[in-house]
Design brief:
The protein has 150 residues and is α+β, with helices and mostly antiparallel strands. The protein has one domain: Gcn5-related N-acetyltransferase (GNAT) (Aminopeptidase, 3-Layer(aba) Sandwich). Helices cover 33% and strands 25% of the residues. It contains 5 helices and 6 strands, in the order βαααβββαβαβ. It has a 6-stranded mixed sheet, with helices on both faces. Helix 4 links the parallel strand 4 and strand 5. Helix 1 crosses helix 3. The longest helix has 15 residues.
């Protein structure tokens, strides 16, 4: 498996794995397959612009997982981790950990103080993964400080 950070030229790769994820696990996302199937190439490219954070895919050799880190709209020191998904047949093999780890590394490289995510309270598998990677929180919001708290 290898991880690859995507840019606008990789729009078709991001589109294909994102639509696969929405098709496979629609309840896991805040968007819908029907909505994102209507996006045109320009919209997919726009989502991969560097100002919108980082998009990462895991490949083996085809894409098997994805994750995104995007600037939080209201909190300028927070990078929001979202859309983490791994194909079912590759789960529990370290793919999710690698994807999240790459977003954390990217966040450190770019000076973010904190990474935040939302995870359903009853998603114990995901919560254990995030806790292992240093995220804390009792509700749906979990945070991972990247800089010393003063």
């Amino acid at each position: 498996m290898r991880l690859r950070r995507l840019g606008p030229e990789d729009w078709a790769t991001w589109r294909d794995i994102r639509l696969t994820a929405l098709r496979s696990d629609p309840e896991a996302f805040g968007s819908t397959l029907a909505l994102e199937q209507r996006y045109d190439e320009a919209r997919w490219r726009e989502r991969l612009e560097p100002r919108h954070g980082v998009k990462v895919v895991a490949e083996a050799p085809e894409p098997i997982g994805l994750v995104a880190g995007v600037p939080h709209e209201a909190n300028t020191d927070v990078l929001y981790l979202y859309s983490m998904w791994v194909k079912p047949e590759f789960r529990r093999r370290g793919v999710g950990e690698a994807l999240v780890g790459d977003v954390l590394a990217w966040a450190r490289e770019h000076g973010w103080a904190r990474v935040r995510l939302r995870v359903f309270r009853d998603n114990e598998t995901a919560r254990r993964l995030y806790a292992r990677l240093g995220f804390v929180g009792d509700g749906e919001i979990m945070d991972r400080p990247l800089a010393p708290v003063s």
